[in-house]
Design brief:
With 516 residues, the chain is an alpha+beta fold. The protein folds into four domains: 28 residues; 145 residues, Periplasmic binding protein-like II (D-Maltodextrin-Binding Protein, domain 2, 3-Layer(aba) Sandwich); 106 residues, Dipeptide-binding Protein, domain 1; 211 residues, Roll (Dipeptide-binding Protein, domain 3), CATH 3.10.105.10. It contains 15 helices and 27 strands. A seven-stranded mixed beta sheet has the order 11-12-13-2-14-23-15, covered by helices on one side. Pfam families: SBP_bac_5 (PF00496). InterPro entries: Peptide/Ni-bd, SBP_5, SBP_5_dom.
């Protein structure tokens, strides 16, 4: 017999014996887990990877200098301690003792510097280069990696916790042929492109991530990511046991969450936020009262519970929950709440009635859940005399289109929806500092506040971020809708325990056990 047949035969004998003696046979704890995803990684070089699907894998192989807890606070990672100079222009990171790369080499301050230098080298073509901030140099002093910046950069510590900020062992890039060698919980084994990626547990792993409970080696010995593009086929794989964890569609997740044989996971700490925005340079959307009325008409509870089947939550802030300085109760006081009658009164006072509605475009992009949300939104707006024509484009074409729409100062006004994600509220700068994301930047006053928060830290930075959010909310430049992940759902059998989704949709398998 083969080894598989022998073990199967022995288990059958044990089962028969258990039945004969009236004993129940406990499920076996499996040493492997298979994940089915719709697409493959584009690279396993964390400093060149450009997709979330790639970074989900590299985050298992490589560690980060710092980590983040569920409240957005920063904790040790590869660095056991860190400090910032009084002027905010330099940082010192003490690298933990005893960290070993997957190939047995030591990860120390010199290794950290080598990885940092490569991440910042223009020749690397790092797609996340700008997020590292204004770094001007680095040096090593014993166990300490020192980093200097041209100016203070408040988001720096948060960024160093993200899946975009992996630190590689130097042996990864010692030769022309890149080899994914890290210090993370799993080691690279093999990659058959557009088919599967196989990882093995790092037996020497010591965990410090506050989102993980297991202090050492993952419970799983083997982790396999299979590419199954068709959603129906992924679900069949889950139901048959061919896969233990899969990416479901929104519709499939809805069916699974009411079935006790399965579990559904939403990206609670994704940092993802959905917003409604305005072409505010075009009348009458240049009037903040009209923008507020439109926001007051939006039934966000219905969007969360009907369009997204209760898998997301209503959000009050322009920044996602769980990030630094985010305070949902403060934002609720600054923003609008659902009040269609008051919204209708504002519109009627401005001269808009059932016979003479405000005509707008509701410009959107096509994604599951969003489609039904926009249909409900269209009805919400009709109730306050706003006649919205839904205009749908594919994602890439949509954002290109909005660049032009946000520059216009006349013509048909547009209300549009979008999403953003990150590990720090600094993505407000990306969105709103002129010219802003797809030209949605606002004015010099907001630009100044956004620049200032980058130069602050701690409570002072939190206060400035609150000022920015208050400004955006009280002037109704944006209406926060929902959080968290709108397209990042996972589903497993009920026999999977301990799986979590971390920040920026990272996948955490350190605590996972599977029984079969």
């Amino acid at each position: 017999m083969t080894q598989l047949h022998i073990s199967t035969h022995i288990r059958s004998l044990l089962a028969a014996a258990a039945i004969a003696t009236g004993m129940a046979l406990s499920p076996a704890v499996a040493a492997d887990l298979t994940v089915a995803r719709s697409v493959d990684a584009d690279s396993l070089d964390a400093q060149k990877a450009s997709t979330t699907q790639s970074l989900q894998i590299t985050n298992l192989i490589f560690d980060t200098l710092l980590t983040m807890d569920k409240d957005g606070s920063v904790h040790p990672g590869l660095a056991s301690a860190w400090s910032m100079s009084d002027d905010g222009k330099s940082y010192a990171f003490t690298i933990r003792d005893g960290v070993t790369c997957h190939d047995g080499s030591t990860f120390d301050a010199a290794a950290a510097k080598a990885s940092l230098d490569r991440a910042l080298d223009p020749a690397t073509l790092n797609p996340n280069l700008s997020a590292w901030g204004p770094i001007t140099g680095s040096s090593v002093d014993g166990k300490v990696l020192k980093v200097t910046l041209s100016e203070p950069y408040g988001p720096f510590a948060s960024f160093l916790t993200s899946i975009q900020a992996a630190f590689l062992c130097p042996s990864s890039f010692a030769t022309k042929e890149f080899k994914p060698v890290g210090t993370g919980p799993f080691k690279f084994v093999s990659w058959t492109r557009n088919d599967s990626i196989e990882l093995a547990a790092n037996p020497d792993y010591k965990n410090v991530n506050p989102l993980v409970e297991n202090p050492g080696k993952p419970h799983l010995d083997k982790l396999t990511f299979k590419v199954i593009p068709e959603a129906v086929a992924r679900m069949a794989a889950l139901r048959s046991g061919e896969a233990d964890l899969v990416e479901p569609s929104l519709e499939e997740a809805t069916d699974l969450k009411s079935d006790s044989k399965f579990k559904v996971y939403a990206a609670e700490f994704s940092g993802q936020q959905m917003l409604a925005a305005f072409t505010w340079k075009i009348k009458p959307l240049d009037n903040p009262e009209i923008r507020k009325a439109i926001g007051m008409a939006m039934n966000r509870d219905a969007y969360a519970n009907i369009a997204f089947e209760g898998l997301v939550n209503v959000a009050n802030c322009p920044v996602a929950p769980n990030l630094f300085a985010t305070d949902e109760s403060l934002c609720a006081g600054w923003g609008v709440s659902y009040d269609p009658e008051a919204a209708k009164a504002i519109m009627e006072k401005a001269g808009y009635t059932a016979d003479k509605p405000l005509k707008i475009k509701l410009s959107v992009h096509k994604l599951p859940g969003w489609d039904q949300m926009h249909q409900i939104m269209q009805q919400d707006l009709a109730a306050i005399h706003v006649q919205a024509e839904i205009e749908t484009r594919e994602v890439a074409a949509f954002f290109d289109h909005m660049k032009g729409e946000n520059e216009r100062t006349d013509g048909l006004p547009v209300v549009w929806t979008m999403g953003m994600s990150g590990v720090d509220p600094d993505y407000l700068t990306f969105l709103w500092k002129r010219p802003g994301f797809v030209n949605m930047g606002i004015n010099a006053q907001l630009d100044g506040m956004l620049d200032e928060q980058r130069k602050l830290s701690g409570d002072a930075r939190a206060a400035k971020i609150h000022d920015i959010e208050k400004y955006l909310m009280e002037n109704a430049y944006a209406v926060p809708l929902l959080s968290p992940g709108w397209g990042w759902l996972m589903a497993s059998g009920a026999n999977v325990e301990g799986f979590k989704m971390g920040f920026m949709v990272s996948l955490l398998f350190n605590d996972v056990t599977v029984t079969r």
